[in-house]
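To the team - 9D3 complex, inputs and output below.
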Amino acid sequence: MRIDVVSLFPEFVAECTAFGVTGRAVERGLLSISSWNPRDYAEGNYRKVDDRTFGGGPGMVMLIDPLEATFEALKKDDDTPPHVIYLSPQGAPLTQAKARELSTRARLVLLCGRYEGVDERFIAARVDEEISIGDYVLSGGELGAAVIIDTVARLQPGALNDADSAEQDSFENGLLDCPHYSKPVQHALGEVPPVLLSGNHAEIARWRRAQSLERTALRRPDLLESAELSDKDRKFLKESGLWDE
Ligand code: 9D3
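Output:
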């Protein structure tokens, strides 16, 4: 998979994606990331990439022409037609299902806005979908791009080692993860739940499932609505007074 990042701060995204699973996916040749700075494609002495918003009010808008020139350059660099995403607070919220869908694309363009955002005519003409990473205010799309790159990189076949299998990830089964413990067994901060030291794998699996269900019910009851629950899971939740349906 190839990802092209369009940003006025390309080093920001490069730094965010150089480590861990993402960095390894790039090293393994599963993913390539290229950055494009519209400033490099802006004309004139000042290389202006933004201007005031028509209609008045504060804030600047990213200009169409430097973005058009940037897209021309990145299309010339590779024949694969890209799926173009604009990171913006007006976008559809990113979910694991959306990440899975994006991870199957051969090529993504991640367009990062700064200031008040991009001229709406460029969005209408060149963008396939708008994505937000949550209901809070960022200063630009770069962190959103880094989040998308991280989520799709770990979904590339061969990106994860056995230790971090994607199927076991929280959200892949729609529940929060169970708690984890390691050495030492005895510590001033507390002890390890004895069941985890029992060697009884069936009992350990039951305990972990119960912990996942309990935490999800307490912390993220909204997730239970769409989680894949067995009859046993429902029975456990009802008997624990964590669910009333
Ligand atoms: C009128 C208020 N504006 C500035 C305070 C609105 C506004 C414009 C541009 C708010 C944020 C931004 C920059 N944000 C992003 O580019 C962005 C974003 C976000 O802010 N939240 C969640 N996801 C994303 S993805 C891109």
